[in-house]
Write a structure and sequence with these properties.
- The complex is a heterotrimer of chains A (125), B (384) and C (496).
- Chain A is mainly α and 125 residues long.
- Chain A is built from four helices and no strands.
- Chain B folds into two domains: 58 residues; 279 residues, no CATH class.
- In chain B, 63% of the residues lie in helices and 0% in strands.
- Chain B is globular, with a radius of gyration of 23 Å.
- Chain C has a domain of 216 residues.
- Classes of the chains: A mainly alpha (125), B mainly alpha (384), C mainly alpha (496).
- At the A-B interface, helix 1, helix 3 and helix 4 of A face helix 1, helix 2, helix 3, helix 5 and helix 10 of B.
Chain lengths: 125, 384, 496
């Protein structure tokens, strides 16, 4: 557990560092507010329209697909670490079963991947 | 030095060393990048401030601190201020498990890693690195600027898409080395000598890891989201002075972290055949590791001006259509080799075969489109 | 250790029918996008291919089921006891009929995915019955839910379907979360997720110092599963979802989640050997008693007020869930010959035939552009489509519990087990059952009256859809057959 105490200390130090930076610039710099500086930047033009537009659904689809594959990764990590370890690892009776199960798992995901590809989710036009 | 035996004090000393090192290194890496880019583009880089421009980073740092801190009226203040902090904090936090020397767990020894003994290792790096997406999204959203919002959405889609090949390439390493802990992977390679470097057994994974990590940190050739020509500044349009500097510090810290990770996970870390073996003194090991990291960073910087920038759909196509199948097949290959207990050097020709196959398929163009089976009734072909 | 390892190694042998079904699902999902063009057009008649493929998959699964034998429960992830065997048969039979009903519901470009979703749902029901672990139970329940969301939207992508899918999705995920919360308390109480381990440690009195935890676990799990059963405080989605859903989906929704819900409830409430006063079932019996009574009354009373055919049928399915809960509440008690659970299983089988048949007739009447919605759409059906009118009448009479139909036998059994279960609670339950059957008669008779005694008002679809007619025929056969020769079903139930 000492390792995580070190990380906690690190987080605290980092938050302090970032906050100090922000406060320092706020205090140290001059403050001259002009109207032009406060406007949103659109290459010198006056901004037209609101920035909060609804965004395209393809971003949402990418996020959901990322979620699916990331969870697959999470399932792969514990198996990868423990499956073929020389000292522990899986008992030899179920090694082939686990091999088959992992192949089926990854092939199910491959089917989902092919389906998504064919349905045009990866097309980013 | 009884005080140093306390692990927390030791951690504090390591943190101070790391923070100082990274911040100093970031500044001088910026100088190095500017000089390198200049030489590659046949011009001189910074050469005014100090000899060969070596004091330029100090001048830049001073400018960032002393410049006016503009917070535009239309922004969402809390999120606007939090985004650069989040970028800096998450990328530096990822460095907590990366060893920069020979790791030792004995109390009183300098551990060369901020958090020794974490078995999670790489998963920690990915978990914390995934939080960096928040910084991009919040930065663009809070700025309340059309270009920033668009840029941040695209940047977040890019980062999120490349996290999967990044994670998958590590699964092969985990299968071979039975651990996720970065220090243990390093020791495993060091104990096996030169032939034990993971890059000989997982060259495809090394390539995928490097590419995906480059894309994650929005470096060229993947920096469409922050390039000048298209979206002004992308998600950091509305940021100036120190907040902008914090975004860039975050990006450079990410580059340093992935260079460290690449050299530790794939290229044997501090190990080198004759100079730095397991029993060598610590300064040789640290020197070798830092030299490897420097070489990789110089490679990354040279890549910036060598390869043209990817278009956004090419970028996403690369992640989803090329890297993910390659990484998955790599995992399947390692799984089969380990299951059927083939000797390990089989991995090298199999990986080369995989790379060649994927390369052939992707360079031959896409698969031919299937026409409808009811073709006789369609008379308008591919019209719109 | 070796027993566990060999159980894991042989686990797949216990779920071969589901493997066949899921292999068919994978095949369909792999092939479907390649046979549909990028713009979403497909060759006409493609849906027949998917329908035949689904039927082949179901028959392979049915064959594998018929050669499987009931085995003693082990320590593996799956169990093949009597209940699993029976539910498998029931779900495969209803899956066959549902595939037929679903044949023409979706257009060609989307037919493959809808049939595949249906097969996945059937596999999910089988896995719920075969699960030996509460985590496996939850995953199987989700295997039913998630294809249901897709299945609700895919055949018809209009606004009504979107609304029904969204409502079902929102409430379903909340109920799954509640169920998982209750299951986590069960795990915390006993330290294991394996059903056999949970039963053993609960029986050994492990939870005795903390009856509050048992209460919370039981209440949460009942709350999570009552959504599927459309039991009363959780039934609010039913009318809207049924109204917007396509007919085959409504047929599926009115039956399959109930099967899964009852099986999951049975497994999870540690009913195999309740011992001592603190068994989960004795804590939850009063709660379930009230749920049963309220469900029956709310379902019947609100159905009286409806003017839309599907909303009325939704409330009628709510009331039938109440009848089935009566059987569940009675539990192991009952007459000497049959227990409450036996009556419940019989009523489930009969109800499946009746309700799927009802929605199948609605599917036969609907065209792709116009659906049967208001009750007045059914006016004069006896003149425009007499065969379907007779079938629908038969199903409605059976739902009502009229003598000479299987529904009557089912209700009679439930009444008898409730009356004989001993104690006032059971007898009151039986009385409320009879009262509700009488109330229910009113709206079923109203539908029959519309069909026979009114003149046709609106145009009713005249297309011949052979698949649906086969489905209707099968359901009629089942309903009549289960009245005249119920013995083979009773024999199957006694194996449980």
């Amino acid at each position: 557990m000492d390792a995580f105490h070190a990380i906690l200390l690190y987080v605290v130090v980092l938050i302090g560092f970032a906050a100090t930076n922000l406060i320092l610039t706020h205090l140290l710099g001059p403050k001259k507010k002009t109207a032009v500086k406060q406007m949103p930047y659109e290459s010198g033009m006056d901004p037209v329209g609101d920035a909060r537009q609804p965004f395209d659904v393809k971003f949402y689809l990418v996020a959901i697909l990322f979620l699916v594959f990331d969870v697959e990764l999470l399932y792969l990590y514990p198996w990868a670490v423990s499956a073929y370890a020389p000292d522990g690892g899986l008992p030899p009776e179920i090694r082939s079963t686990v091999f088959g199960v992992m192949l089926v798992f990854m092939s199910t995901l491959a089917i989902a991947y092919v389906y998504a590809w064919r349905k045009g989710v990866f097309k980013w036009r | 030095m009884e005080l140093l035996k306390n692990p927390l004090i030791m951690a504090g000393v390591t943190i101070a060393v790391v923070l100082g090192g990274i911040l100093g290194a970031c500044s001088y890496l910026i100088w190095l990048e500017r000089k390198l880019s200049a030489w590659m583009q046949d011009r001189l880089g910074p050469n005014r401030v100090g000899p060969m421009g070596l004091l330029q980073p100090i001048a830049d740092g001073g400018k960032f601190l002393l410049k006016e801190d503009v917070i535009p009226d239309h922004v969402n203040k809390f999120l606007y201020l939090m985004a650069p902090c989040l970028s800096l904090i998450t990328t530096m936090l990822a460095f907590a498990v990366v060893p920069f020397g020979p790791v030792s767990h004995a109390p009183g020894d300098f551990p060369f890693v901020i958090a020794p003994g974490i078995d999670l290792g790489i998963v920690f790096v990915f978990a914390v690195g995934s939080l960096a997406v928040y910084a991009i999204i919040l930065g663009g959203w809070a700025s309340n600027n059309k270009y920033s919002a668009l840029g941040s959405l695209r940047a977040s889609a890019q980062v999120v898409s490349y996290e999967i090949p990044l994670g998958m390439s590590v699964v092969g390493i985990a299968l071979l080395n039975h651990t996720m802990s970065v220090e243990k992977i390093l020791m495993y390679q060091a104990e096996q000598g030169f032939a034990g470097w993971n890059v000989w057994y997982q060259p495809v994974a090394a390539l995928i890891f490097f590419t995906a990590a480059l894309a994650e940190s929005n470096r060229l050739p993947f920096d469409l989201t922050e390039c000048e020509q298209e979206l002004v500044g992308g998600f950091h349009t509305e940021y100036s002075a120190m907040k902008f500097a914090m975004f860039f510090l975050g990006e450079y810290t990410h580059v340093i972290t992935i260079s460290f990770l690449t050299s530790v996970l794939f290229f044997g870390g501090w190990h080198f055949p004759v100079i730095a073996e397991v029993g060598s003194p610590w300064f040789l090991k640290v020197g070798v590791l830092l030299l490897k990291v420097l070489l990789i960073i110089v490679l990354i910087q040279m890549l910036r001006w060598t390869i043209p920038r990817f278009r956004f759909d090419q970028l996403m196509g690369l992640a989803w259509k090329v890297l993910i199948p390659m990484a998955t097949l790599n995992v399947v290959i390692v799984m089969c080799v380990l299951e059927f207990e083939l000797p390990r050097f089989w991995l090298l020709p199999l990986s080369a075969g995989l790379f060649a196959t994927v390369g052939l398929i992707s360079t031959q163009g896409s698969l031919p489109q299937r026409s409808l089976t009811a073709a006789p009734t369609a008379a308008h072909g591919h019209g719109h | 250790m070796n027993i566990v390892l060999s159980a894991i190694r042989n686990a797949v042998d216990l779920i071969l029918p589901e493997v066949a079904l899921l292999a068919t699902v994978c095949m369909i999902f792999l092939a479907a996008p390649f046979l549909v063009s990028e713009r979403g057009e497909a060759a006409p008649g493609l849906r027949h291919r998917w329908g035949w493929l689904s039927l082949i998959g179901l028959s392979v699964a049915a064959y594998l089921w018929s050669i499987s034998e009931i085995q003693p429960v082990g320590l593996g992830p799956f169990r093949l006891d009597g209940l699993a065997w029976f539910i498998r048969g029931l779900s495969l039979a209803s899956g066959l009929i549902l595939v037929l009903v679903n044949w023409n519901q979706a257009e060609d470009a989307r037919a493959g995915e809808t049939q595949a979703c249906l097969l996945a749902i059937i596999a999910g029901v089988n896995l719920v019955a075969a699960a030996n672990d509460i985590v496996g139970l939850f995953v199987a329940l989700e295997l039913i839910s998630i294809p249901t969301y897709i299945f609700l939207l895919m055949p018809r992508r209009d606004a009504l379907a979107q609304e029904s899918m969204l409502k079902y999705f929102m409430l379903s995920i909340f109920s799954s979360a509640t169920l998982l919360f209750g299951m986590s308390y069960l795990y915390g109480l006993t330290g294991t997720t394996h059903l056999e381990g949970i039963y053993a440690s609960l029986q050994a009195g492990q939870s005795q110092p903390m009856p509050l935890l048992v209460t919370i676990a039981a209440v949460m799990m009942i709350a999570g599963l009552a959504f599927r059963l459309t039991a009363v405080p959780f039934h609010f989605y039913a009318p809207d979802v049924f109204q917007g859903a396509p007919n085959s989906v409504a047929a599926m929704l009115s039956f399959i989640p109930k099967v899964a819900g009852f099986v999951a409830l049975y497994r999870v409430l540690a009913v195999t050997i309740p011992s001592g006063d603190w068994s989960m079932l004795s804590l939850s019996t009063p709660l379930l008693w009230w749920l049963a009574v309220l469900t029956m009354f709310v379902g019947n009373l609100l159905a009286l007020l409806q003017n839309d055919v599907r909303r009325m049928l939704a409330f009628s399915s709510v009331s039938h869930a109440g009848y089935m809960l009566v059987g569940f509440v009675v539990g192991d008690a009952g007459t000497k010959a049959i227990s409450g659970y036996d009556a419940l299983l019989f009523y489930l089988s009969v109800y499946g035939a009746m309700t799927i048949g009802t929605f199948a007739t609605l599917a036969a009447l609907s065209t792709s552009s116009r659906r049967v919605s208001a009750i007045s759409d059914l006016d004069g059906l006896s003149q425009t489509r007499p065969v379907i009118a007779i079938a629908l009448t038969f199903f409605l009479l059976s739902l009502m519990g009229m003598p000479f139909t299987a529904g009557f036998v089912g209700k009679l059994n439930l009444f008898l087990v409730a009356w004989n279960s001993g104690g006032d609670a059971g007898q009151w339950l039986a009385i409320w059952l009879a009262v509700n059957a009488a109330i229910g008669a009113w709206y079923y008779l109203r539908l029959i009256r519309e069909m026979y005694l009114s003149d046709p008002v609106t145009e009713v679809g005249q297309e011949q859809q052979p698949a649906v007619m086969v489905a209707i025929g099968l359901c009629t056969l089942a309903t009549m057959g289960l009245f005249m020769m119920p013995e083979w079903l009773w024999q199957a139930i006694q194996k449980v």
